[in-house]
């Protein structure tokens, strides 16, 4: 089994792509761009469908920094949570182009958002090092979590990634510049534990159903690491190779599991590349190398048939799966 480049979608204005997501029904690909626009493409043929301006009539177009689709229901689909560096969090209906709701977090820049799997709550994080949880139905703030207890003092710097735990509806994880992953309980207003080590500068934190934590760090060694959630101990490190031409290694901006959690996708700067890693043996089963600019975001399609990659050059690279995944070491 491998992932190989199958198609490239080129934007007309080449705006950098800071966030990329497939819709839960696998029908479209959504881009969050440096010029403050959302761009929607057909997931099957790459056709441009819509462009929406998240900045409205403002002269300064602030970047879209994070995207999460709300879990689909029978009555409400295609609603996406959009974060902006201007401290704005918006709900957009991407097929009608309507901004349904706007939340402003004063004196903050929002870099990360996430939904709980049931869609009842969403969370935000960013420049002010706090994690905020909101009620989806009322859009009201439930709790602002900052600081810590026990062995954790909370975040001391910007937060770039955020994730609800899969097996506990009250637990969230976050990571950022301060070389920690913080573990939060939304029933409290402080962090309850921390993992020290990862230097996270993008959407590079994930959690599988077995409570294994994936982190991607913006540095030239120890970039991809797997941690045990219960103990906080490091389980595995995956070494990324040096680019034979530039002699650089990839500093990671984005890392995630696929839906089955048997693959890891990652990408970043330095060597300007994206890779797919087989978790069972650590082998690379997909490579997108030699790009002109950094990779900022990557996401698997819901059926795991494609990996969509976006970054500084404004292109969407679609890598297609071929064959069957081997679990042999």
Please explain how this structure is put together.
- This protein is mostly beta strands.
- Helix content is 0%, strand content 51%.
- The chain contains no helices and 28 strands.
- The chain is globular.
Structural class: mainly beta
Largest sheet: 4 strands, antiparallel
> How do the helices and strands follow one another from N- to C-terminus?
EEEEEEEEEEEEEEEEEEEEEEEEEEEE
Principal-axes geometry comes out as globular
Average pLDDT: 94
Number of helices: 0
What is the straight-line distance between the termini?
14 Å
Q: Which band does the percent of strand residues land in? A: over 45%
Instruction: Give the oligomer, counting copies of the same chain as homo and different chains as hetero.
Output: single chain
Helicity level = under 10%
Rg of Cα set: 18 Å
Uncertain segments of ≥5 residues (pLDDT<50)? none
Strand order of the largest sheet: 1-28-27-26
Number of strands: 28
Care to give the gist of this entry?
This protein is 0% helix and 51% strand.
Topology:
Blueprint: E1 2-10, E2 17-22, E3 28-33, E4 37-42, E5 48-53, E6 64-69, E7 79-84, E8 88-93, E9 98-104, E10 110-115, E11 121-126, E12 131-135, E13 141-145, E14 159-164, E15 171-176, E16 180-185, E17 191-196, E18 205-207, E19 212-216, E20 224-228, E21 234-238, E22 251-257, E23 263-269, E24 273-278, E25 284-288, E26 295-300, E27 306-311, E28 315-322
Antiparallel strand pairs: 1-28, 2-3, 3-4, 4-5, 6-7, 7-8, 8-9, 10-11, 11-12, 12-13, 14-15, 15-16, 16-17, 18-19, 19-20, 20-21, 22-23, 23-24, 24-25, 26-27, 27-28
């Amino acid at each position: 089994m491998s992932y190989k480049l199958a198609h490239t979608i080129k934007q007309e204005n080449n705006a950098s792509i800071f966030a990329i997501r497939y819709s839960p029904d696998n029908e479209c690909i959504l881009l969050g761009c440096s010029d403050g626009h959302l761009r929607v493409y057909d997931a099957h043929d790459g056709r441009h469908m819509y462009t929406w301006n998240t900045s409205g009539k403002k002269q300064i177009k602030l970047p879209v920094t994070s995207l999460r689709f709300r879990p689909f229901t029978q009555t409400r689909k295609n609603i996406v949570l959009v974060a902006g560096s201007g401290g704005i969090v918006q709900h957009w209906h991407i097929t009608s182009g309507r901004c349904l709701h706007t939340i402003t977090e004063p004196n903050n820049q929002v870099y990360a958002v996430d939904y709980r799997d049931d869609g009842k709550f969403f969370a935000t994080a960013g420049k002010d090092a706090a994690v905020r949880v909101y009620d989806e139905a009322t859009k009201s703030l439930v709790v602002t979590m900052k600081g810590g207890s026990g062995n954790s003092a909370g975040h001391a710097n910007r937060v770039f990634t955020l994730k609800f735990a899969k097996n506990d509806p009250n637990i969230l994880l976050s990571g950022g510049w301060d070389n920690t992953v913080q573990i939060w309980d939304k029933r409290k207003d402080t962090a309850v534990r921390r993992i020290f080590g990862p230097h996270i500068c993008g959407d590079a934190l994930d959690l599988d159903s077995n409570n294994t934590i994936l982190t991607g760090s913006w540095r030239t060694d120890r970039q991809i690491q797997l941690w045990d959630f219960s103990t906080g101990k490091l389980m595995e490190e995956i070494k990324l190779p040096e680019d034979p031409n530039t002699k650089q290694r990839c500093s990671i901006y984005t890392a995630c599991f696929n839906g089955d959690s048997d693959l890891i996708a990652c990408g970043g700067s330095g060597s300007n590349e994206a890779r797919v890693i087989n978790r069972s043996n650590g082998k690379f089963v997909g490579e997108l190398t030699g790009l002109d600019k950094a990779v900022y975001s990557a996401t698997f399609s819901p059926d795991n048939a494609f990996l969509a990659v976006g970054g500084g050059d404004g292109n969407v690279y679609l890598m297609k799966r071929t064959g069957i995944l081997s679990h042999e070491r």
